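A further point concerns the way the authors explain their paired sequence and structure data. For illustration, here is how one protein appears when written out as sequence plus structure tokens:
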Amino acid sequence: MRAAAVVARFVPLALAASACGQLPDAPLDARYEVIDLGVLRAGDCCSGAVAVNGAGVVAGYSYAYDRGYGRAFRWASGVVTDLGTLGGAFAEATDINATGDIVGWSVDSLDRRLPFLWRGGVMAVIDVRAYCQYQFCGEALAISDSGHVLLSLAPATGDYRARAAIWRNGALQLLPAELEFPRDVNSSGVVVGLTDSYRAVLWAGGATLAEVEVTDPLFYPHALNDAGAILGVSGADPIVLSGTTRERLPGLGGYATVVHAISESGLVAGGGNAENGTFRAVVWNAGEPRGLDLPPGMVGAEAFAVSDAGYVAGLAFGPAIPPSGSVSHATLWRLRP
């Protein structure tokens, strides 16, 4: 599952940090306080926050190595809620919008993976069972503030490509077949993603795709805001495309930088190594990176979501503990009053 991959990826970074302690750490943004959200259930080792809205409501996941499955959760003002499942053993949240709707995927009683929409305390299936191939039917990747849910569906019979779709108010629309890797959707219903030949494209309705105008031979989009700014990477470089402007985001001075989300005003969330090797959650404001503080006992962190209301969400991870590996906790950073 994705959470396990995230934790495993951090283990060498944490070890590198201890080996490079004589080098300087990143400049920290002291305006943010850090809140360790813990885990959902007793016995869980790991959790992560994947999205946060302007009210500071967090969507995330929590799991245990020995259980082999995870659950989706909602965190609001210190109260953690298990979102339940579609009848199977596990679920994972992927996004939340301004009204608090949460999307993701879960398995049903037949062990089929299906997208869900959680609204008002109820998890409901987004019915794409007509598109199932074996046990995979589809999953929800993102939800816009206007209710567009971006889906990735199982390939059609005889085709290798996953199918992208938009669901809104009960209506499902398949997107052009060439759009194999959808990434994000904004409130206008515009989708950014990659084609089956790894070209960055936009879909704004109809049967055609528009090329993202980039000079980079390989630009991989990650996120899209309502102003049309696209966040992505070109090689190892984080890039923001806004109209005809191309902005490269600097890192914290270390060897790795990643980006995940962009707010409506252009704040960017991600992570990166400081010169001493510590991997920190990072917020870019007007293109300038600032590291965020760590919860007690944690050795690194990464941010996956940011809102203009002063909230950043992600995870912090502890040192590697053989044989299971590292421990991670969902983490919220918020601007101090």
Remarks:
- Residues 1-21 have pLDDT under 50 and may be disordered.
- Residues 2-91+176-335 form a domain with the Methylamine Dehydrogenase; Chain H fold (CATH 2.130.10).
- The longest helix spans residues 2-19.
- The longest strand covers residues 87-96.
